[in-house]
User: Fold this.
Amino acid sequence: MKGEVFKAACLQVNASNDLQANIDEASRLCVEARAAGAELILMPENVAMMEWGRSNIVLKAMPEDQHLALKSFQSLARELGCWLHVGSLAVLVDDGMVANRTYVINPSGLISAKYDKIHMFDVDLGLGEVYKESATFRPGDSAQVARLPWGRMGLSVCYDLRFPHLYRAYGQAGCNFLAVPAAFTRTTGRAHWHVLLRARAIETGCYVFAPAQCGTHVNNRETYGHALIVSPWGEILADALEQPGFVIADIDIKEVIEARRKVPCLEHDRPFSLPPKG
Assistant:
């Protein structure tokens, strides 16, 4: 394992449905974050494409071995000599569906880990704001861990944040960090974003990295922004607020150890019977 302290950065972008423009903007911010000392740079969900409607998303999704954004970010990782977490890309899969897939790329440009979003955002928020990801996306079925030089990072995407058992499993598997790239809606973000991310950090004693989409996108979809870095004690170390850019913070592995020493709840599970339904 490398030194105990390193810098991590989370990007915040306002992605459009223009693939190359989105790649260029994310790459520009990565260059800036690397110049600021970041050794790990994380991107938000849908970093290369914020599209609307099943037909449009499927049309612009690409197979993994042909994905232009993935190839671009692999080259960027080599150029910058750092770890890149590609929040998520729309990857065309065999059954005509799309995987919402995270990639972690090492400084040699090789894929170190990947993860397909497990939980589908099928909700009706009222006033006509309806989302049904399961109509377009094939859900993943396995938790995945990226092995970084500083420790293990549990992978997730956006709506996964509402399922705390996933993160507890990561904590008990020895993860020091949790990645939660997101395109959280403005409606749900205002109500739940900060408190859920802080809760996941507190429950696991992990650092939480939450890069985010912000602003208004195609079809007037609005995302909340506020890319966050949260300490293992639940403190917000950096908040990107509402504009595109990035946040950066020092990450100290000793803080993980100390938080878990104070409250070793990952070791305190006990069996219990479930209440009856109804």
User: Anything to note?
Assistant: Residues 202 and 234 are 5 Å apart (CA to CA). The chain has a mean pLDDT of 97. The chain has one domain: 5-264. Helices lie at 19-35, 54-60, 68-80, 164-172, 186-204, 253-262.
